[in-house]
Design goal:
Helix content: 55-70%
Number of strands: 0
Order of helices and strands: HHHHHH
Mean pLDDT: 86
Low-confidence stretches: 1-5
Shape: globular
Strand content: under 5%
């Protein structure tokens, strides 16, 4: 069962403002990146800032030039933990 706590950010995750700033430093906005990747809604990639979405996280990470596992370390640790808990 999924709860609100499943999507809470941890101290290991980058702050959304830091992610947006890193994108801007590379010449991107979330809007431009969404449209570049074929999403009809310009705000589609905003979802990755607020909740886990592996594909969106990877797109943003590639644009920044830093692995998604570093930007969202808490999410990846939780995913890793869930994988082993299911075994």
């Amino acid at each position: 069962m999924s709860t609100l706590n499943d999507t809470k950010k941890t101290a290991m995750d980058w702050h959304r403002a830091d992610i947006i700033a890193a994108l801007h430093k590379r010449g991107w906005s979330l809007r431009q990146l969404s449209l570049q990747h074929g999403y009809s809604q310009a705000s589609t990639l905003k979802n990755a800032l607020d909740r886990p979405w592996i594909k969106g996280e990877r797109i943003i990470a590639e644009a920044i030039g830093i692995p998604a596992e570093i930007i969202w370390a808490g999410r990846f640790a939780q995913r890793h933990h869930k994988k082993f808990a299911e075994r």
